[in-house]
Specification:
The chain is an alpha/beta fold. Helices cover 48% and strands 17% of the residues. It has a single domain, classed as Collagenase (Catalytic Domain) (3-Layer(aba) Sandwich).
Length: 154
């Protein structure tokens, strides 16, 4: 899978990015995603993610992760499909500030929190959600399965 990383904070260690790349490839394989798929992971600060959260979700507060899925169909939108086109999953945006805050709050490493947020965002790209209790249970169970099988425990 092709993953385009952008660290707007210049603060994410390369070994964390390597881990996240391996984790995403592992998760993609577990979810049956083709190795030809493309996506991006963007590391930002609280200010930048708050702007995105305000503009796209009408919530004027920083959040930990936002996903922009490219495979969601919008009513009235023309579907462009071609056999030669790669599967573009979308973009994951992670607040490094929020990840660090939550790692301290939950008593685990920044690395574990970034891994959790990455899998959470990735599953959103694939259509998982947590708008109701049943969907939340399904998504969170899948997150823990992927992280556990990869070797990242709480």
């Amino acid at each position: 899978m092709y993953i385009d990383f952008h660290d707007n904070t210049n603060s994410v260690p390369t070994d964390y990015i390597d881990l996240i790349q391996r984790l995403l490839n592992f998760a993609a394989k577990k979810e049956g995603i083709t190795s030809e798929a493309e996506m991006s992971v963007n590391f930002v600060d609280n200010k930048e993610i708050q702007e995105l959260n305000r503009n796209y979700r009408q919530k004027d507060t920083p959040t930990d992760v936002i996903s922009f899925a490219m495979q969601e169909s919008v009513e009235g939108e023309l579907e462009i499909v071609g056999e030669d086109m790669p599967l573009t999953l979308g973009d994951i945006v992670i607040s490094v500030d929020k990840a660090k805050e939550q790692a301290m709050e939950y008593g685990h490493t920044d690395e574990r929190e970034l891994a959790f947020l990455t899998v959470h965002g990735f599953l959103h790209l694939l259509g998982y959600d947590h708008m109701n209790k049943a969907d939340e249970e399904k998504m969170f169970k899948r997150q823990e399965e992927i992280l556990g099988e990869f070797g990242i425990e709480r």
